[in-house]
Amino acid sequence: MAPTRPTTPPPGKKEYGRPGPIQPPPSPFTPGSRYPRNGMIMGSEPATVPPSPSMPVPGFDALTMGPVPGPSFSTRNDRGGKGDRKHNERTGAGVKKPQPKKKTASDAIAKLIDITRSGKPAQTSFRFMDLPGELRNEVYKHVFDNPKQALLVHRPRLATLRSRTRVDRGRTLASDIVEQEHDEELSTANKTARGSAKPKGPSRETNRPFWGLTQVCQQLRKEFHPIYMSKQEIGMDLTEIVQYLKTFYPTASEELDKLAAPGERKADMPFVGNITIAVGDKPSEMEQSKEGIEIVHLLDIWANSFKIETGFGRYLKAHYVPQTDGEAKDLYRLFGRRVLWDQSCSAMNSLWRTILRTRALASVRVHRKPARTVAATVMRTTGPQAPAPETQPYIHIVFKKEFAEPWMTEYESVIPKKADWLFDRGFNVMEYFDVRVGVEQHDAKRRGAN
Question: Which long-range contacts (CB under 8 A, 24 or more apart) does 250-257 make?
């Protein structure tokens, strides 16, 4: 059975100046998430997905029937009177109830009955936006009865100002080859001999299910897009996560700057999402670079948003055993969770949660395959040279100066062992990665450390 996806944990008692709410029930998992779906090559995460540590998450109805949010967002304490708003206002999802007069489901049904009784031919089409908000929400709800993962593949264009060129269309990717083979199979199955008729084969499904609902008009996009972002599982490579966040959360930096301190914060950023990050079997050229992969922006958005579920996984392959995948399991430590043997996640580490919520980190870089260290030895005149020792993969956590502890003096500082610093923050007994900790430095000092 595929793992379940937990809901967003509530904030601490001191974060909003009120007692912490009751833990909400878990959200449903994506059916068949660990098996090939829709031509995808990506398997889901090897454990439960830790969501962002924000406000408690309402049900689907709260993500649908709510007005468009204003410049400020209300909290659960703002009840009563005209200022009473639901939590769904924070995401902007769903249909805004028309004021003061609205159409009801009975009106639409009565209209159809009148057409039938009059004997006139029924109209061939019906305007979706003419439906009452309650019925449109039922359509949105039906969309995700059978969700499928959408795998994003980056395909950069050639250096040209033209939108599409013959050369650009001629380039192929591994995913294109799979699609071409599938199309050929469908074409062969649909071919009929002279005088014979064969049943048509199954049509190829889209990799972006129901994305068209966000492209119809502004009103429909405003209603459906937040629901789409929260329910649609997006799969992408680890190297593409930064560009994805810049594209689909373009105002994240501005929203982060507006956030108050956790003790004074009234609401988190109104972002929702459902992301699975793929870790390739072989590190790419970017992952082997000296800089590694920067993911601090992901942690900032995840830890301070309304509800973003994020997990790590592998590209789908046969005989994959997630319980023994130490690399993917270690990456969950960045979310403050430890992956247990039954694929569930432990409770979130409180100290690491505070670090993420206060945005105390300047950088978090994942080095999957660091460059070999150069041995400072005298060159031998004869005989083969000994290869440089291979550096263990590591995660480099860099604190901002104002949040640095006294022992953090260098870009790569010596972690005190007696104080159990790593244990207290959930980074002890790592299976694959080493952990390095430091404080941000000037460029000259940083280059010297590298």
Answer: 252/297, 252/300, 252/301, 256/300, 256/301, 256/304, 256/359
Ramachandran bin of 420, using left for φ above 0, alpha for ψ from -120 to 50, beta for the remaining angles:
left
Sheet with 361-367, side-by-side order of all strands: 293-294, 361-367, 394-399, 434-439
Which residue type occupies 123? Q
The pLDDT tens digits of the residues spanning 47-94 come to 556 677 764 444 444 444 444 344 444 444 444 444 444 445 555 556
Q: In whole angstroms, give the CA distance from residue 75 to residue 270.
A: 12
d(CA 165, CA 359): 45
Residue 145 tokens, joined: 């009865």
Say how far residue 412 (Cα) sits from the centre of its chain: 29
d(CA 3, CA 46): 8
Q: Give domain limits for the chain.
A: 1-78+85-99+110-156+220-360
Kindly state the DSSP code that residue 17 receives in the 8-state scheme: T
CA atoms of 397 and 437, how far apart (whole Å): 5
Distances (CA, A) of 63 to 107, 230, 373: 25, 9, 51
Of the candidates 98, 73, 76, 74, which has an alpha carbon nearest to the alpha carbon of residue 19?
A: 76
Give the predicted TM-score (pTM) of the model.
0.64
